[in-house]
Every structure is written in C-alpha cells, then in structure tokens.
UniProtKB/TrEMBL annotation:
CDD domains: HTH_MerR-like (cd00592). Signal peptide: none annotated. The lineage of its organism: Bacteria, Bacillati, Actinomycetota, Actinomycetes, Kitasatosporales. Pfam families: MerR_1 (PF13411). This is MerR family transcriptional regulator.
Length: 246
C-alpha cells in the first residue's frame, strides 16, 4: 500500500501519517527503488491502533507508552482488541441513535420529550453544515435532564444565530484530523469559553460543566484536537465559576 491508500483505509490523512513518522510514533516502512513507501497490513493495524487510542483521549506520549507495551504481541491479538473497540463504539452509536429516535419521534411540540425552552432554542438555531454544531445540539438534547432548565436555554438564545459563533464551530471542524497539540487549539478554546455567557454557567450543577458526569463521554465524541479544545473550554468555564463563587 502507498501512503494515500493506508491513510484512506484507516480513516486519517496522509499528513497525519507523515506527522506520526516525524515524531517516531509510526515507524517508517521500507521504500521501493523509486523512493515510495510500501505499507503492510501490520502498518495499517498499528496506524488504526494509534487513531483509536487518540480518539479515546490519550495524548501522543501516552499512546507511545501503550504501543511499547504492545510490542511483541501477536497480530491476531491486536486485531481482536481493535475489533472489540469498534464493537463497543458501534453499540454506543446505536444507543445514542435510539435516544435520538425517541426524541425525534413526531413533531417537536411542547408534548415531546423535550422542554419547551429547548424546543424553542432548536427552532431558532439556523441550518448549518457544521458537523460540530450539529453534534453540540445533539449533546444539548442528551444532557437536558442534567443541565436543563429555562435559564440555560434562554441564555443560549443570543448565541443560536450568531455568525461569530458559527465561525467558531467551523474552526472546530477544521481540527478534525489535527493532533491534540495543534497550535490552533489554545486560541480557539479561549474564544469559545469567552462566548459562553455567565447566565448559562449559573445553570450548571455545583462544580461546573465537569460535574455533570458526562465530561469523558463528551470528550470521547470528538477527534483528539477537538477533544482538547472542549476539555480546555470546560476547564476555563469551571475556573470562571470558581472565581465567581469566591
């Protein structure tokens, strides 16, 4: 396989593969006489393993440690573990889709299993092609029982159709294939946290966003760089709450 083929097979970009080579996370394969890299099945399995570990929220140095522990294991054993990981991910997706199917079964009216305030918020939110914006709305529905209340949704109304907020989502989309240490992560986290109004923070349980118990589940739903942005945003919002309480 060539670099573009292994990248497409695993679901990453060729640039990501080259980055992993550069930092020594993915060993360089042998090259043909014409200089092209030649990748094997084991290379594909290793790359898939790296992607899965980063999706679970591990930093690249932590991934390196896990891979060192994997050294010498049989290929069939590693493949079996990857298959089990994918099966767990598939079950989680099915569970989430079942929840959404219940929520979307019928028109969104005050009689639907959503609060009227959240229904109104979803109605005013403009159509967008941003995957992360769509995911954020999904999270709002899934978390309604934890953070729900008219106050939080009323505080979000001014943000729903704000072009500046949509632009932030688009920047988050651009980090889909980026590493967690991408230089765009920190400034985007600062801008996103600054966009959250104090009124919304006041609606969270004591302890801030992380206290909902959904923190890790939310992080697992994003790619490494996106998860790092979300983690930093929650960290900054919790710090804001602490400063207000002191």
């Amino acid at each position: 396989m060539r670099i573009g083929e292994i990248a497409a097979l695993v679901g990453v970009t060729s640039r990501t593969v080259r980055h992993y080579h550069h930092i020594g996370l993915l060993p360089e394969p042998r090259r043909r006489a014409n200089g092209y890299r030649v990748y094997t099945l084991r290379d594909a399995v290793l790359l898939a393993r790296i992607r899965r570990l980063t999706e679970l929220g591990l930093a690249l140095d932590e991934v390196r440690d896990v891979l060192a522990d994997d050294a010498g294991r049989e290929l069939a054993e590693v493949l079996g573990e990857l298959d089990a990981d994918l099966a767990r991910q598939e079950r989680e997706i099915q569970r989430r889709r079942a929840v959404l199917a219940t929520l979307l079964d019928g028109p969104l009216t005050p009689d639907a299993p959503l609060s009227p305030a959240l229904i109104e918020l979803l109605k005013v939110a403009p159509a967008t092609s941003s995957p992360t914006a769509a995911k954020d709305r999904e999270h709002l529905m899934l978390l309604e029982g934890v953070i729900g209340g008219d106050a939080v949704y009323a505080a979000l109304r001014p943000l729903a159709d704000n072009p500046a907020v949509l632009a932030l989502y688009e920047r988050l989309d651009e980090l889909e294939e980026a590493a967690a240490d991408d230089p765009r992560v920190a400034p985007l986290a600062d801008e996103l946290s600054a966009a959250v109004p104090d009124e919304m923070l006041a609606a969270f349980p004591d302890g801030g966003p992380a206290a909902t118990g959904f923190e890790q589940a939310l992080l697992d739903d994003y790619s490494p760089a996106q998860a790092e942005v979300v983690r930093r945003v929650m960290e900054r919002l919790t710090a804001r709450l602490d400063r207000r309480a002191s």
